[in-house]
Amino acid sequence: MDHPHRRHVGSISSRSIKMRFATRFLRALRKINKQRLISNSNMNMNSSVSSREIIKRYRRVKMAADVTMASAVGPRRAWSRAILMKLRSRRRGHGVVKHVSCIAGEDVGDSASLRRKPRVDKKRVDGDHEDKADQDQGQADELRRLVPGGEAMDLFSLLDETAHYIKCLTTQVNVMRSIVSYCSSS
């Protein structure tokens, strides 16, 4: 049995990441909700919520989830550093630089920058099947596109970061499900 005050070198318990994420995410959701309430008080209360407002809120929640997970993990992982750096560079592009923890509930970019680029399948002209090495390289390239910061990683680092990123995404989904379940039962 592990000593409760002893940490494993190089790993952080998923429970502590889960708690940090949940706390920060709930704080960000409260901030988003306050912005919504202020926005609604400025609008005519009889008007329905526009699809544009729903999309804007969706982006804020998604960005809050990504940023709070990356900040819960901290700078130890390349994928979390990539998310935090992307956010900082976006904010600089808008002429405002703020600490990441203050941004989680704010609108951080235009819709074009948040859309995924369409996937392009590269097929050989002659119709032959790719050999095993080309297929493996294609899969590694696909992972590099999916994992934040993956473009600059060697294969070993990419696989390690991918495993950790998936673990954190799973934690993120479980926390969000718990929040929905709690709110639905109230």
Describe this entry's structure for a reader.
The protein is an all-alpha fold and 186 residues long. The protein has 6 helices and no strands. It has helices at 14-42, 51-73, 78-93, 111-114, 132-146, 155-185. α1 (14-42) runs antiparallel to α2 (51-73), α1 (14-42) crosses α6 and α2 packs across α3 (78-93). The protein is globular. The chain starts with 13 loop residues before the first helix and ends with a helix. Residues 1-10 and 95-118 have low confidence and may be disordered.
Radius of gyration: 20 Å
**How far is the first residue's CA from the last residue's CA?**
38 Å
Poorly predicted ranges: 1-10, 95-118
Number of helices: 6
Strand content: under 5%
The H/E string reads HHHHHH
Biggest pleated sheet: none
Coarse structural class: mainly alpha
The total of beta strands comes to 0
**Share in helix:** 55-70%
The whole-number mean of residue pLDDT values reads 77
Shape: globular
Q: Regarding quaternary structure, how should these chains be classified?
A: single chain
Nutshell version of this structure?
The chain has 186 residues and is an all-alpha fold.
List the helices and strands and how they pair.
Blueprint: H1 14-42, H2 51-73, H3 78-93, H4 111-114, H5 132-146, H6 155-185
Helix pairs in contact: 1-2, 1-6, 2-3
List its traits.
186 residues, mainly alpha, 6 helices, 0% strand
